[in-house]
Amino acid sequence: MKATYINYNLQFKFPAGTSRGVLLHKPSSFLLLEKDGITGVGECSTIPDLSIDPMEQYDQKLQKVCLHLNEGTALENVDLSAYPSIAFGLETALLDLKSGGKRELFSSDFSLGIAGMPINGLVWMGDRRFMQKQIREKIAAGYHCIKLKVGALDFETELEIIAGIREQFSSNDIELRLDANGGFMPADALEKLNRLSAYHIHSIEQPIKPKQFKEMAAICQQSPIPIVLDEELIGTAPNEELLKTIHPTYIILKPSLLGGFKVSEEWIRLAEKHNIGWWITSALEANIGLNAIAQWTATLGSKLPQGLGTGQLYHNNIPSPLEIRDAKLYYNRTANWDLQSVL
Hints:
This protein has 343 residues and is an alpha/beta fold. It is built from 10 helices and 13 strands. It has helices spanning 58-70, 84-98, 128-140, 155-168, 186-196, 213-222, 240-246, 255-258, 261-273, 287-298; strands spanning 2-18, 21-35, 38-45, 117-118, 121-123, 145-149, 175-179, 203-205, 227-229, 250-253, 277-280, 322-325, 328-331. β5 (121-123), α3 (128-140) and β6 (145-149) form a beta-alpha-beta unit. α3 runs parallel beside α4. The longest helix has 15 residues, at 84-98.
């Protein structure tokens, strides 16, 4: 088996705002495994200031991984504990190689093109006009579950935007998920959650920054809105004690930030053991990584809308059979992959 990699810089169609700042582009790398004329492709995707991978050594690590694989080093002897995104890329590249290099990693009605997967519509942070424009577009496109980024704008402005949605659409019409990305302070988080609860919010992700276990546990216990852990899981091996201590209503799994599917499945097992719900979210991957995550997610049997609608964010994404219709993600088997820019 021959291993190589290619760096690829994804360009956003618009400034993508979060409480951690604004993204204009995002680095990814594609890990290529070639054997007997078949090439498996996996994506190693990181997010600045969120991924735990040491970025100053990232390229060197990819070089070493390829060198080890080309020398015949056993996979279990390739240490990727500090590089979850590379672990994810290697896992998916091997699955693709095994499936014949067709980007069909898991078989389901989704990958066979028979069924679509419900997804939420993501509304990015920005000024009031930009956010309201996105909301109108998502509703017009048929989304019944909308996720709004909050925590970076003036809180009163965010409340007004949310109130504007509820004036037109009840919680029976539109499910509202919020994502604070740790943007609230522990001292006033509950006050904000109480005010937000007037608008019948389905859930809110990571209201305060991670690693504040006592404060997060108290918020989960007292919040009128169900709390979702997201960043709290990144950089942490599946940890039953963490889930028992904080006991959120839901957790979110981002396989490319957690270290792959096996790690994510262990988090799911622990969550279900403690009656904690979950759903899957992509982490700004290009279509290579998004496809792998979507095909895996389709095998899990969740009925909740998933966070897998990020494939349309980039000017230079990899053309693929993934498409969104009627607020569902589909794998269109009449369309083709175009990996010329990668291979």
